[in-house]
From TrEMBL:
This is MFS transporter. The chain crosses the membrane at residues 26-45, 57-74, 80-101, 122-140, 152-174, 210-231, 243-264, 273-290, 296-319, 331-351, 363-380. PROSITE patterns: MFS. InterPro entries: Atg22-like, ATG22/LtaA_families, MFS_dom, MFS_trans_sf. Residues 1-385 form the Major facilitator superfamily (MFS) profile domain.
Length: 397
């Protein structure tokens, strides 16, 4: 609702009143929020690791996302910079919170079940996305146009409420162990820890190769997600109602992909699962390029949903397997923050430059095959047998 579908169209068509510069301001807002998260995540992750207060960090970021998403319901025509600033803060809250959320995975799942638990988590996320689309469909059915702006703004408030209600159980149930008071010196220590990690990351060669692979293929995946609605509307002429239906299909198959491939990850390992999903993504891109009919693009969405859920859950399981236990949140800060968010900055810019220069979104879409190919090349060089403890190098040593 806020990143892929409703708010981007609302921002361009209503807040920016359809002006061309709305695209640049929207792209800049997404990139700025991702850049900030990429810069701060490793340091906050390190601070959370040695303080044992992951839940407190997660609560602050979640509250920021909820509050700023609700405030976006107050924006309207002529408030472009205010809306952009609120979106940047909301996206920092959501994306930054993912670092601490994902870092709980090794604590709540055994090594044998880590793949399926990761898959179940993504499946529930996609079920939530499908649910909010169904819940808000009456408000969206009139299209993202000025005459329907009151309904759209109400939808943003309901999104924030939905987020808050379903985030609450985590804070009520999960408990952090070995908590210690957090002082200013701990944040200085986090800078030292991150600097050490960056300098010695090659001591975890499989982790380094995986992060490079993740950077490239996640770059392509996030670009597909960011431009899917624009591509469908501009290149294939989708209406708002057709877009809602399309994203419902994608979310439904993403649920199935997350569960099925989560179980498959535990059977064949995350590396083989990632290789398989990257091959599926290449098929998705080729199908989208060749699509001239809406029905073909709907079929492409089916496969894209399966690929999206499976690649994300398998990647998280792979990261959990390769991460040394004492640095789990810090390393997930690099995974979710530095590598995950940095790729979200570069991919859309690359796509936009090629699309603008060539005058054809299909050519820009074809360029993403290069990123998937590089990701596949690096992931094949990761030794999947590496364990979370076996690859650790002690700083004291």
């Amino acid at each position: 609702m806020m990143v892929t579908f409703a708010f981007p169209l609302y921002f361009k068509n209503i807040v920016c009143e359809g002006r061309p510069e709305g695209d640049a301001l929207w792209g800049g807002s997404v990139s700025l929020s991702m850049l900030i998260v990429a810069l701060i995540s490793p340091f906050l992750g390190a601070a959370a690791d040695f303080s044992g207060r992951r839940k407190r960090f997660l609560l602050v970021f979640t509250a920021l996302a909820v509050l700023c998403s609700a405030l976006l319901g107050l924006t309207g025509p002529g408030m472009a910079y205010s809306a952009a600033a609120l979106f940047v803060l909301a996206n920092i809250g959501f994306e930054g919170g993912q670092v601490f959320y994902d870092a709980y995975l090794p604590d709540i799942a055994s090594r044998r079940s880590i793949g399926r638990v990761s898959g179940y988590g993504y499946a529930m996320g996609y079920l939530g996305a499908l649910s909010i689309l169904l819940l808000l469909f009456p408000l969206l059915s009139g299209g993202v146009v000025p005459s329907n702006s009151d309904n759209i703004r109400l939808g943003f408030v309901l999104v924030a409420l939905f987020f808050a209600v379903f985030a609450a159980p985590l804070f009520l149930v999960l408990r952090d162990e070995n908590r210690i008071p957090l002082a200013v010196k701990d944040f200085r220590r986090s800078f030292s820890e991150v600097r050490y990690t960056v300098m010695h990351i090659m001591k975890y060669p499989d982790l380094a190769r995986f992060l490079l692979a993740f950077f490239f293929y996640n770059d392509a995946i996030l670009t597909v997600i960011a431009f899917s609605s624009i591509y469908a509307q501009n290149t294939l002429g989708f209406t708002t109602a057709e877009l809602v239906g399309f994203f419902m299909i994608v979310q439904t198959t993403a649920i199935a992909g997350s569960v099925i491939f989560g179980i498959l990850t535990d059977r064949i390992g995350p590396k083989r699962t990632i290789v398989l999903t990257l091959c599926l993504w290449c098929v998705v891109v080729i199908m989208a390029i060749l699509s001239t009919e809406k029905s073909v693009f709907f079929a492409t969405g089916l496969l894209a949903g399966v690929s999206m859920g499976s690649s994300q859950s398998a990647s998280r399981a792979m990261m959990a397997r390769l991460t040394p236990p004492k640095h789990v949140t810090e390393f997930f800060g690099f995974y979710d923050g530095t590598f995950g968010k940095a790729s979200a900055i570069i991919g859309p810019v690359f796509f936009g430059m090629i699309s603008s220069g060539a005058g054809d979104q299909r050519i820009a879409l074809a360029s993403l095959l290069l990123f998937f190919g590089l990701g596949l090349w690096f992931i094949l060089r990761v030794r999947s047998a590496t364990t979370r403890t076996g690859g650790e190098v002690s700083r004291d040593a």
